[in-house]
Write a structure and sequence with these properties.
Length: about 210
């Protein structure tokens, strides 16, 4: 009872109310069976509203999933693939849940361009230099998970992607509920932005979102 946990990770102590939530979910499923979906959707809207407040957007533009990896797979599966547009740009500082999918895509013939994170103050500019009309998507973190460094000037990235017809995927997991993060101020209202509750939102495992 005298331990102090100085962590903001998935191995942190869970808030007491998480047990109540898990118990309520179990009872809802056991008692209502197929009729539980109305209650579940009502709960999910509350979660979407909470995430929407953190990133300053409309709840209707928030999709939920069990993990950021799940959302990254969905994003990749929806991209308009073609031989003329098969280039994906990323950094060497992305989370393994993202990189493992990109490495697999590279095995299947995609051109994966990896930009060094260091020095972090110029990583966005160096990513921009590699974007062209063959670029299918750009994957970049707003805060890099290994170093905690911020990718500055993110607001300049979306216009370049739009100009070349590339989709932008931003991993904001390390920023949400830690730093001020506004989609509007970051000029990311047309980007696919993911985050989740495992770490700094203290929601526990199994809940992530995509704008």
């Amino acid at each position: 009872d005298e331990r102090i946990l100085l962590t903001g990770q998935s191995h942190q102590a869970s808030p007491d109310c998480s047990l109540l939530g898990q118990s309520e979910a179990w009872l809802m499923a056991a008692q209502n069976i197929e009729a539980r979906w109305e209650d579940a959707l009502e709960k999910s809207m509350l979660v979407r509203e909470g995430f929407a407040q953190l990133v300053e957007c409309e709840p209707e533009r928030i999709a939920l999933a069990a993990s950021a990896h799940d959302l990254a797979v969905r994003f990749l599966s929806a991209l308009p693939l073609s031989p003329q547009r098969c280039k994906i740009i990323t950094t060497d500082g992305e989370h393994p849940s993202i990189n493992r999918q990109l490495y697999r895509a590279q095995e299947s013939g995609f051109e994966i361009i990896t930009v060094a994170v260091e020095p972090a103050h110029s990583v966005v500019a160096r990513v921009q230099e590699r974007i062209d009309d063959r670029t299918l998507a750009v994957f970049i973190s707003s805060v890099f998970f290994e170093t905690g460094q911020i990718a500055f000037e993110m607001d300049t990235l979306m216009p370049i992607c739009l100009h070349h017809g590339a989709q932008l995927f931003v991993d904001a997991y390390q920023a949400i509920n830690v730093l001020p993060f506004s989609l509007k101020e970051s000029n990311l209202e047309n980007a696919f932005v993911v985050g989740g509750g495992t770490k700094y939102c203290q929601l526990g495992d199994g809940i992530a979102f995509m704008h």
